[in-house]
Amino acid sequence: RLFEPLQMRDTILWSGPQASPPGAALSQPLRPPAPLSVGDGGLWTTARDLLRWNDALLADTLGITVTLHTPGILDDGTQLDYAWGVRAFQLEGERVESHGGSWECATAKLVRLPDRGASFAVLAHDDSIERMTALSSALQDGLRGHGITTRS
Fold first, then answer.
1. Which residues, listed in sequence order, are joined to residue 120 by a DSSP beta bridge?
2. How high does pLDDT run on average in the chain?
3. Is the dihedral of CA 55, 57, 58, 61 positive or negative?
4. Where are the alpha helices (DSSP H) in 1-152?
5. Mean pLDDT of 69-74
6. Are 114 and 97 in contact (CB under 8 A)?
7. Cut 0.70: pTM above it
8. Contact at 8 Å (CB) between 142 and 110?
9. Percent of all residues in the chain with a pLDDT value above 70, rounded to a whole number
10. 142 has pLDDT over 90
11. What angle do CA 50, 54, 59 make, to 5 degrees?
12. Which residues of 28-52 are buried (b: 16+ CB within 10 A; e: fewer)?
């Protein structure tokens, strides 16, 4: 329902039994067993497929973009900056939609600046959330600082 219509041919939900899917590019072998879920640690993809997903969200190809990016509201009316797995917030008056995560020696982050039609994805053979956060913040600042307004 998601991967095939978007031609994400190199993306797989993997729950084992091996620690990683066949053909996975790893800087070091993962310790078995594989995660016993298809969510946290179970989604394997490539930068190309991650950007296909991103393009689909920007174009609302699957009709889910608004739902995924609508932040929650607590019972007392407090607005959250977290939607359906996506941090959706304003930075200097500009919308930012971001999702990232890490799993044993791998970190990924996808950031969209929808008002500019700009976005970027970073995948690293590293499990440092701090380093990924610093890199993505610097990239966001660079996009804003250079006035980039076209989709990149």
1. 111
2. 81
3. positive
4. 47-59, 65-68, 129-145
5. 92
6. yes
7. yes
8. no
9. 86
10. no
11. 150
12. eebeeebbeeeeebbbbbbeebbbb
